[in-house]
Amino acid sequence: MERHSQDRVEQTGQPRRRGMLSRLLTLGTLALMALLVLAGCGPDIEPPYSHISPESPSTEAIQDLYKLVFWLSLVVFVGVQFAVVYIAMRYRRKASITKRPPQIHGSRRLEIAWTIIPAIVLLLLLIPTITLLYEGDAAAEEGDIVIDVYGKQWWWEFQYREDANQDGQSLGVVTGNEITVPVGRELQLNLQTNNVIHSFWIPRLSGKLDLIPGHVNTLSITPTEVGEYYGECGEFCGIQHAWMRFTINVVPEDEFYAWVNNWRTSPPTTVRGEATDQVVKAPDAFAVCLGCHRVNGVEGSVAPQGIEAPRFIGPNLTMLPCRETLAAGMLENTPENLAIWLNDPGAVKPGNYMADAIQPDTLTDEQIAELVEYLYSLEPEGGCTSAEGWTDPSVASEAAPVPGS
Ligand code: CUA
Q1: Does 149 sit in the ligand 1 pocket, CB within 6 Å?
Q2: Taking the domains of the chain in order of start, what are their residue ranges?
Q3: pLDDT band for position 22 (cuts 50, 70, 90)
Q4: Cβ neighbours around 268 below 10 Å, total
Q5: Which of 32, 267, 293, 295 has its CA 20 to 30 A from that of 278?
Q6: Can you tell me whether residue 98 is helix, strand or coil?
Q7: What is the mean pLDDT of the chain?
Q8: Rounded to the nearest whole angstrom, what is the distance from the C-alpha of residue 202 to the centroid of ligand 1?
Q9: Of 364, 322, 326, the residue nearest 345 (C-alpha)
């Protein structure tokens, strides 16, 4: 039966050619799709979380290693494919031969060859990998701006510690999720957590490094290019792990000190007292917020939080209007979104600790409107990035009291 149908196909030739044509068409379409997908990986396109467009010496070194792995793999891939095709064609069974060829099971020469070749390839990868790991470790010892980074559930707290330009004094900045740093300066990030394991990752500026309870991991980064870089948590840490994002704004040095100065010159504010010429009055409902949050300048809210803080304690809200997002990258920072968040944070980011304190009926619409208005008044007079009111770094430490000092 089979013989018959095959003969028929061969006689007419039509079905076979059509089969070949459709196969070629499918292959062509797949190749075109692959080309289009790969075109998205070009160096000109920089997706925010790309790890193949490095902007710091450490990620450049990682990129070099990545290239080495890529080219070595390509050599192995092409070699194996070539060997498979060549051997299949060269040693094809001829119609005239009916005998089995001699078998080569247990050939010592072949076994040794395909043990040694991969060992050499792996050794070629091992040496630069280990060198790079130790180089990264050595670099993490220094750092002329020291920042303590705390992984929270689910956001990041950044406390600026020492600054070599200020004789190693603290910059007094304690912020959440969005930070500003000067270009070309070495940052030493001390990664800590008092809850679960997180992983700090800014794909274009650093490799991943875990935050482990009871242990401080140190990461060193020197951003070499002005720009906005995106980071995220790289280790599953609870239901909002995906919304534990952060941004790092790399700016010229004078802009950085303007930002620091803006941070430290918040207006003196009272919640319980009365407004005066020198003192701003925050809405009464703000007392609820102060249970977990801090704002520079507000009476009774000067302590940094960090590692000692209970896990439900939230981000420092100083300069809130200057942030791009709310809830660690989840909402665009607009007054409307802030009102939505204040009304029912549990609906926006299920499982977050603020939802334990704030349910839909906790704050009235009027209170929410007052809080939004007050929080949006926390923008510095000259604007968020303006250098107006910039104080020379050497005297900036006297511009405003440093929180917690
Ligand atoms: Cu923190 Cu995932």
Answers
A1: no
A2: 50-89+108-139, 145-399
A3: confident
A4: 12
A5: 293
A6: coil
A7: 82
A8: 13
A9: 326
> Tokens 């992983």 sit at which residue?
199
The set of residues, in sequence order, having a beta carbon less than 8 Å from that of 238 and lying 6+ positions away, is 153, 154, 196, 351
What distance in angstroms lies between residue 353's CA and the mean position of ligand 1's atoms? 15
How do strand 269-270 and strand 280-281 relate by DSSP bridges? Answer: parallel
Element (H, E) at 355: helix 354-357
Evaluate: CB of 86 within 6 angstroms of ligand 1: no
Residue-level pLDDT at 101: 82
Closest CA to 327 of 128, 176, 223: 176
CB of 242 closer than 6 A to ligand 1? no
The CATH architecture that domain 145-399 belongs to is: Sandwich (2.60)
Read off the tokens for 324.
């791009």
pTM of the model: 0.76
Which residue, chain included where needed, has tokens 């039509």? Answer: 14
- pLDDT tens digits along 89-117: 988 888 888 888 888 888 899 999 999 99
Does the CB atom of residue 244 touch ligand 1 within 6 A?
A: yes
Residue-level pLDDT at 391: 41
